[in-house]
What we know:
Layout (H helix, E strand, L loop, with lengths): L1 E3 L2 E3 L30 E4 L2 E4 L1 H8 L4
Antiparallel strand pairs: 1-2, 3-4
Amino acid sequence: MTLFKNKYRIESARLSNRDYAANGLYFVTICTGDRACFFDDIVNAQIYLTAIGQIDVFFDFY
């Protein structure tokens, strides 16, 4: 670890030779408080998207 402004900091996990501004597929993890299910409901082994989950599908470009 290195120091920044006299405090410890963790080194970046990003690849140094990667252009993160370039187009490409990215995996995004969204964490909810207390693992609340905001994106879907599971009833009788079927998944039903909530309104928020439907927005996520709309922006799913792959």
